[in-house]
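Worked problem 6 (solution included).
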Amino acid sequence: MSILGWIIFGAVTGWLANLIVNKRGEGCILNIALGLVGALVGGAIFRALAHFDVFGFNLTSMFVAILGAVVVLFLWHAVTGNRTLR
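Solution. The predicted structure is:
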């Protein structure tokens, strides 16, 4: 996947995770960063639990990335003190 593909993937997963966690976005750049970090975290969690790597742009990798981004968002809100989760 190209760099542009990863940026779009990160933006989509970060935005969807934000909708799940707090019903609003964190901003475009932060959504992309949290989505990409979430994809890495989700991949690591999935690899540890299922002993299977998920790569590429498909529904399985999107699901794993969203789960990882939700975990990252909860940690982000805990660290930054943002308690406006709805």
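Discussion: Residues 76 and 82 are 8 Å apart (CA to CA).
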